[in-house]
Amino acid sequence: MVSWIISRLVVLVFGTLYPAYSSYKAVKSKDVKEYVKWMMYWIIFALFTTMETITDIFICWVPFYYELKIAFVVWLLSPYTKGSSVLYRKFVHPTLSSKEKDIDDYLCQAKDKSYDTLVTFGRKGLNVAATAAVLAATKSQGVLSDRLRSFSMHDLSAYQSNPTEMDSGSVPTQSAAGQQRARTMMRSKSESGYTKASS
Question: Which residue windows does the record flag with biased composition (Polar residues) (predicted)?
Answer without folding.
Answer: 161-182
